[in-house]
Amino acid sequence: MSGQLIIGQLSDRGKVREINEDNLCVLTPPSVAGGIDALLAVMDGIGGHQAGEVASRFVAEQLKKLFSPDKFREWVMYSPDNPDYYLFALKEAIERLSDELNQKASSNAQLFRMGTTATIALFAQGQVHLGHVGDSRAYLFHAGALQQLTKDHSWVMEQVELGVLTAAQAAVDPRRNQITRALGLANTVKVDLRRELFGANDAVLLCSDGLSTLVSNAEIVEHLQTISDPQRVCEKLVELANTRGGNDNITVILARSARDAAMDETQRLDVAKDEATQIVGAKVDASDDTPVLSRHGLTQVMTQMVGKSKKKKK
């Protein structure tokens, strides 16, 4: 438990892959900088010769260093009074780590074209701040509704948006694993940023595509409504994905407010029966810097904050 959060986590090789190229990072006080309640991240590595595992592990390890109490103030140049303080920090961190992956790959032929997705959730000041690149996902569970907070940066998602493929066709298309953005695969990386209020009865779930391609939103909701312990939810979701073939690595992190997790199983089952569940698929236009109203009227999607951030330190 971290403050008002209870966190579960699990990363599994699955049933087909020889190695686990997923990695996760969970930071809570006192291992994270002051003012941050928790930092959670899921990375899904890309590249042959185990380069994907190297990339995802590198990002997980570096996040621990960058957001540690003694290092955070050294590289974050923005004022804590800035309302976008944590979003700027996530953007800066992801860009730095992408650059460092490029440098590592250029010096080692076996790491050529290595990269990783990164979906990071930072909890602070009653909000969850998100930085996202790739096709790992972040969901918000609020009042019986599951909302996808991230947009898949994938070829099939582009085709869905163009009207070339339906969502059902994209789900079974053999090219569904082709991603269009990742850390380390290009000289620059475009980062999707977003923040949401995080209330007393809310939960945030991060996962790699090894879960989201095999487990439906409705099934995630069912587990969240009927199981209070975040660790058990993670274990059951991974188990479900494995029973359906486990054809990819599977990683999931669930952060639940302590108040919500304290609800006993009988109460939770009663709520599940009475509550009309709504599944909301968030559609985020990563090219649009305009604030987007959400259930709280506060969600903001920011990407290329040109001119708003200071020049990075060399």
Features:
alpha+beta; Phosphatase 2c, domain 1; six-stranded mixed β-sheet; 10 helices
Look at the structure and give the CATH class: Alpha Beta
N-to-C SSE string, H for helix and E for strand = EEEHHHEEEEEHHEEHHHEHHEE
SSE-based structural type: alpha+beta
Q: Which stretches of 5+ consecutive residues score pLDDT under 50?
A: 271-314
Mean pLDDT across the residues is: 84
CATH fold label: Phosphatase 2c, domain 1
* Main beta sheet strand tally, sense and closure: 7 strands, antiparallel
Q: What is the total domain count?
A: 1
Radius of gyration: 19 Å
Strand content: 15-25%
Q: Would you count the extended β strands for me? A: 13
Any idea what the CATH superfamily is called?
Answer: PPM-type phosphatase domain
What is the overall silhouette?
Answer: globular
Strand and helix layout:
Elements: E1 5-12, E2 22-27, E3 38-46, H1 51-66, H2 72-75, H3 85-106, E4 115-116, E5 118-124, E6 127-133, E7 137-142, E8 145-148, H4 155-162, H5 167-172, E9 192-197, E10 203-207, H6 209-212, H7 217-226, H8 230-243, E11 250-257, H9 258-261, H10 265-274, E12 278-280, E13 300-302
Parallel strand pairs: 8-12
Antiparallel strand pairs: 1-11, 2-3, 3-4, 3-5, 5-6, 6-9, 7-8, 7-10, 9-13, 10-11
